[in-house]
Amino acid sequence: MKFKKQHSGSGMPEVNLVPMMDVIMTILTFFIVVSMTLTNFQSVKDVALPSAEQGTSSDRPVDPLVVGVDRQGQTIVNNVAVNDTQLAQQVVTYFQGNPKGTVVLKADKQLAYEKVVQVLGTLRDVGGDRVSLAIE
Fold this sequence. Notes:
Blueprint: H1 18-39, E1 65-69, E2 75-77, E3 80-82, H2 84-97, E4 103-107, H3 113-125, E5 131-133
Parallel strand pairs: 1-4, 4-5
Antiparallel strand pairs: 1-2, 2-3
């Protein structure tokens, strides 16, 4: 039996890239796993957190002043239509009696944005900086 002799003297040497890619993927996997495990251990230590019994408040929240603006653009407080000066007086009176109170503005969704901004401006001018917009 005769075997053919392989001739390798005439061509360029070939580099096998598969083992090198295996090594690179192994190193990459190692660094990914290490970085994921190290990020889970970062936390703030030596902090005494309050329990629920210590954090309860005996203060009852103040009922908000509800200001409504209907589809026609009329401002309504306590089911009574008011103008801007009456609205300002009622908001000032409310905040004098409830310094930590809030104002809830209920505006009709069909109302022009300009009217809502005018009411918000009136509330801001009299010191109503804690205004929430009601949504459904």
